[in-house]
Design a protein that fits this description.
The structure is a homodimer of 140-residue chains. Chain A has helices spanning 5-19, 28-35, 39-51, 76-84, 91-94, 106-123, 127-138, and strands at residues 55-58, 64-67. With 140 residues, the first copy, chain A, is mainly alpha-helical. Chain A binds a DNA duplex (30 and 30 nucleotides) through residues 4-6, 27-29, 38, 40-41, 43-44, 46-47, 50, 57-65.
Amino acid sequence: MKLSTRARYGTKALLELALHENGELVPLKEIAQRQDIPLPYLEHLISPLVQAGIVRSTRGIGGGVSLVKPPHQVVLSEVILLLEGSLAPVDCLNHPETCPHSGHCVTRGLWNEVREAISGVLDSITLQDLVERQRREDEP
Amino acid sequence: MKLSTRARYGTKALLELALHENGELVPLKEIAQRQDIPLPYLEHLISPLVQAGIVRSTRGIGGGVSLVKPPHQVVLSEVILLLEGSLAPVDCLNHPETCPHSGHCVTRGLWNEVREAISGVLDSITLQDLVERQRREDEP
DNA sequence: CTCTTGTTGACTATTTTGGTCAACAATTAA
DNA sequence: TTAATTGTTGACCAAAATAGTCAACAAGAG
């Protein structure tokens, strides 16, 4: 039940972007340094975020990446789903056909409740929430 | 964020035991067959459950395993914690010393909320609940 | 046109997971 | 007491997932 580094790194990278409010471009190199992420690995994490329309990018001098939407519109469930592939703790929730017992499996119902609990939390938190927590952490 | 087969198989095995109410001994071979678990693998899953006092075992002819406590006293969080090693989606929750930022990391707080959501569900469900769901599934 | 920065795909290394095998211990029945 | 049965343990192995690297390329800016 561990989160992959993709999800962890990706979340931290987006938080970093959200902290640069005005849609300012931030070079991947800077994100990599500030969040301790290997640059070539970060490049692979950013790519799906760009394709999903969460992040936009510009190349060349002064280039970098930034959020497309304001932080309060980026919900974490969307992010984790994208980076992790799924929020389900077992495959049979997304692909019932892979298990012959899906239709009448009691444990499957259990894992479904776990998934809903996870989604519930991640649906309710946005990048803006993380930004505010960070500010509270930094200043008082 | 996938559950290991250890946790999935283990839960199914315990449910199987809970369905044999009276503390009746069930051979591992039977559990393995009914739940589609490789027998030698199941043996390794049962072992920690025996050591944790959740299951007792008897060898020899007519031997097998059974629950130590009645199903309503076996909480799933205990089981999953045992088989999975942890309910935390990231290691830094259990071992803050492994990450230099633990003390002031915003994402860590987020993952902690996820863990609490998972625990909340698993704390509230016992083997007896699963048994009842199974009965409801079987009979009407 | 060259420097910088992002993009892509192939590749590799490491770790985790899932599973097997064999030797052994305990229990029961013949 | 011996043989069959069933659980126990530890070593071992294979496959898959994960994490990470490298190199070639594309596109902007000076």
